[in-house]
Amino acid sequence: MKDHGIPPNPFNPHAWITGNPKIGKGTWIGAFCLIDGLGGLEIGKACDISCGAHIVTHSTVRRCISGRRHNKIDFARTKIGHNVFIGENATILKGVEIGHHSVIGAGAVVTENTKIPAYSLVVGIPARVVRSLREEVSAFKNGKRHKKTKRK
Ligand SMILES: CC(C)(COP(=O)(O)OP(=O)(O)OC[C@H]1O[C@@H](n2cnc3c(N)ncnc32)[C@H](O)[C@@H]1OP(=O)(O)O)[C@@H](O)C(=O)NCCC(=O)NCCS
Q: Is 102 inside a domain boundary?
């Protein structure tokens, strides 16, 4: 295979991991993900980060539109809890915190500094919590069947 120039990482040869993110045991990262640790990134244990998902902890927006008068890159610490599922092509922007056992739907954009409580099902652009997964997760843990609650 021709060298694609992406630095090697222990997760996937086609994922691009920058900086030095802390990534918990058992976390899976698919192809074409961008995992940007430059602003400080912590990802918990046993997460699934589906193909094409981007987690971005820096931004050059202000540097760009200020014509370099704001002559620096903005960074923000970003944190993903344990057992979080991130769907294909979802984007998580800087400063976001996602509580454990949450699901981020395919294609969602979680905007800067959003705090998502544990057990949330989150979808859309901008991403919004549509329901709690607490009962579903506890039903799984107890080996019971659980009926989905509909969005109000
Ligand atoms: C979010 C997801 C997990 C579905 O979860 P669910 O519990 O079955 O949720 P529902 O289908 O009941 O959807 C709840 C609501 O969110 C909406 N929704 C679901 N997924 C969505 C998505 N990705 N983007 C936008 N809206 C979405 C539904 O239309 C529904 O809206 P409504 O209440 O207005 O009818 C699924 O749609 C998804 O995005 N999965 C990602 C799969 C993936 O990336 N796989 C990669 C390989 S593992």
A: yes
| Residue 116 counted as domain residue | yes
| Cα torsion angle, 82, 86, 92, 98, sign | negative
- Going by alpha carbons, the residue nearest to atom 1 of ligand 1 is 105
In single-letter form, the type of residue at position 127 comes to A
107 found inside a domain: yes
Which alpha helices (DSSP H) does the chain contain, by range? 61-65, 134-141
Q: Which residues line ligand 1 (CB under 6 A)?
A: 50, 87-88, 103, 105-107, 121, 123-124, 130, 148, 151
pLDDT tens digits for range 28-80:
999 999 999 999 999 999 999 999 999 999 999 999 999 999 999 999 999 99
Atom of ligand 1 nearest to the CA of 133: 7
- Domains: count for the chain: 1
Domain with 32 in it: what CATH number?
Answer: 2.160.10.10
pLDDT in tens, 102-145: 999 999 999 999 999 999 999 999 999 999 999 999 999 888 87
